[in-house]
């Protein structure tokens, strides 16, 4: 699992220090920098490209109005706001919100949830590119319980071609059993649970 980087932008020294101390409990994360200056936010975020930006909305730069869009397009950054106004999360389309009065566990749970989601998306993206569109189609049929001949008949290809694709899929995914391939197909939304016999 890749190490996730976190950047904290908050003008209060105590809050920065407290957050840094709290977030040390998270595994596979690194706080790359703390910022207390509004003018540096855009530049530093674009240089460092952290996975998560925890920011006081007062430090949102006025010359970088759509902060999330600008930063997220490049590096899929998650935006977490520190505020006492809960509605600001929707207003700024943030991924999370920390209230000043939140306890340690609430903050850690929020961060862990976001990290889990990021890791899951990363695994899905990585695996999605592993097999070709044709192989995904073959895999879908395998997961639905069709034999090589049935797949060949449905896709108007030879059995030999199906077998070759099947070997390639097994090698690329490192999954040998039909049940394992079925689970993979469900997790990657190639088929739905309802389609499985």
Describe this structure in words.
- InterPro entries: CheY-like_superfamily, Sig_transdc_resp-reg_C-effctor, Sig_transdc_resp-reg_receiver, Tscrpt_reg_LuxR_C, WH-like_DNA-bd_sf.
- Residues 5-115 form the Response regulatory domain.
- Residues 124-189 form the HTH luxR-type domain.
- It comes from Paralabilibaculum antarcticum.
- This protein is α/β, with parallel strands linked by helices and 197 residues long.
- 51% of the residues lie in helices and 14% in strands.
- The chain has helices spanning 13-23, 41-48, 67-75, 88-91, 104-128, 133-143, 148-155, 159-173, 178-187, and strands at residues 4-9, 29-35, 52-55, 78-83, 96-99.
- Strands 2-1-3-4-5 form a 5-stranded parallel β-sheet, with helices on both faces.
- Helix 6 (133-143) packs across helix 8 (159-173).
- The model has no long low-confidence stretch (mean pLDDT 83).
Write a concise synopsis of the structure shown:
Keywords: DNA-binding, Transcription, Transcription regulation. It is built from nine helices and five strands; from the N terminus they run βαβαβαβαβααααα.
Number of helices: 9
Structural class: alpha/beta
The gyration radius over C-alpha positions equals 23 Å
Question: Biggest sheet, strands in spatial order?
Answer: 2-1-3-4-5
Q: Quick one: biggest sheet?
A: 5 strands, parallel
Give the helix level as a range of percent.
Answer: 40-55%
Topology as a string of helices (H) and strands (E): EHEHEHEHEHHHHH
Question: Can you count the beta strands?
Answer: 5
Strand content: 5-15%
Average pLDDT over all residues: 83
- Spatial separation of the terminal alpha carbons: 34 Å
- The geometry reads as elongated
Q: Give start-end ranges of low-pLDDT stretches.
A: none
């Amino acid at each position: 699992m890749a190490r996730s980087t976190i950047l904290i932008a908050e003008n209060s020294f105590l809050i920065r220090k407290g957050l840094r101390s709290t977030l040390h409990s998270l595994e596979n994360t690194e706080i790359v920098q703390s910022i207390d200056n509004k003018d540096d936010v855009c530049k530093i975020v674009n240089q460092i490209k952290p996975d998560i930006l925890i920011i006081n909305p007062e430090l949102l730069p006025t010359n970088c109005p759509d902060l999330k869009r600008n930063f997220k397009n490049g590096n899929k950054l998650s935006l977490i706001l520190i505020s006492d106004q809960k509605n600001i999360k929707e207003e700024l389309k943030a991924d999370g919100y920390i209230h000043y009065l939140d306890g340690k566990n609430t903050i850690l749970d929020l961060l862990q949830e976001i990290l889990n989601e990021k890791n899951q998306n990363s695994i899905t993206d990585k695996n999605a590119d592993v097999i070709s569109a044709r192989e995904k189609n073959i895999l879908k049929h395998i997961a639905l319980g069709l034999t090589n001949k049935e797949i060949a008949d449905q896709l108007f290809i030879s059995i030999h071609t199906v077998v070759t694709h099947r070997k390639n899929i097994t090698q690329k995914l490192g999954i040998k059993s039909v049940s394992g391939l079925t689970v993979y197909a469900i997790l990657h939304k190639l088929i739905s649970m309802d389609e499985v016999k």
